[in-house]
What we know:
The chain has eleven helices and 21 strands.
Amino acid sequence: MLFNPTIETMPLPRLRALQNERLRNLVQRVYRQVPWYRHKFDAAGLAPTDIRTVEDLRRLPFTTKNDLRDNYPFGLLATPRTELVRIHASSGTTGKPTVVGYTPADIDLFSEVVARSLAAAGGKPGMILHNAYGYGLFTGGLGLHYGGEKLGMTVVPVSGGMTDRQLLLLRDFGAEMICCTPSYAQTLAEEVNKRGIDLAEFSLRYAVLGAEPWTETMRAYVEQGLSVSATNIYGLSEIIGPGVSQEDVDERGSGSYVWEDHFFPEVVDKNTGEPLPEGREGVLVFTTLTKEAMPLLRYWTNDICSLHYDRGGKRTHIKMSAITGRADDMLIIRGVNLFHTQVEALISDIPELSAHYQLVVTRSGTLDEVEVRVEISELHQQMLEQQHIATHLQRKIKDNIGISMRVTLHAVGDIPRSEGGKLKRILDLRG
Ligand code: ADP
């Protein structure tokens, strides 16, 4: 279902004209109201009138997470602090949290893009939405909550954790849609299986998963384990929260629509910062075209993906590929760049292994070493001693990624699970 068909199917030339008009207003406003941006423009020898179309964005410097930290907490606001009706912060996965503020119009915008996202994921007015994202400073809980209400869904604000209660409410209330992190959906699917719960007692049909990178392997696991169609929702607090982009339930696997009437995306080269053409992988950068309280120009997300227009899709907006990882989560092991999702993809090709794994990085002398801890799948428990499975994965990793890693097999339940939030897949013990 399309929540806002006029915007979601707007022909590209009109969408571009809308973006350009919004960008011109934004640049004027930011220059006038945020001293930090004014200095940036002045230092680059640019006047607001130099930025007329999204093509001109490349002339502007990037805004980074460090810039937000330097202006902690309210230095980048474009409105007086007293006009904020809400404050959120990033979940602090990679250091000190960054703070963001919302005016009433920003909350409306946030709800609109989440409502569009939930509709694309299969949601409809009247459906029960079981919201297992954490409520609090993290944008996930309240973001999905307001968006669900905007779409006309009945929102159950369960928040994360307490798996017993989650399962009870899922069954008793008959939620058709659940949203949470993919790793927590994995936990729920596993518990359903462990307790021998009959999924026929549930009404679940859709899962909306995001806040951390995930792969097709995880999708298959969750779809089968919870009997749902699972789609990807992406976002970050600096830009608004979840709902910056969303996958359509009928177009799974082909990327997530970026609501580009509000968030203009670019993918740029990680080293040179030069914008890259459609289909090329690089760092995702966003300009918030409409946000009032804390608009950002060319925000460097550190997330790695590519962009492309899907001419066969239901909507005209550009799609982003799944995030392979964060640039700052990327391990460099003996000169080779590595994301944990690459290892996950190889694990998934081996039926004797489960989707529960962790990478442990240590240093011996000057050499970095990676141990892949992976669980044997339930069906193959008796094979725990079978070294040939470990050797098989080890060889695949060496052939495909080019690094030798130690692989150790573990019993079901030995690798940490998500208890509601984001799961740490990498244990870095290199001091
Ligand atoms: P933090 O940076 O502290 O985790 P946020 O809670 O704002 O703060 O998280 C935003 C980040 O979470 C994104 O920049 C991205 O790295 C990750 N993320 C969010 N949604 C997804 C998704 N669907 N796929 C991959 N990564 C995601």
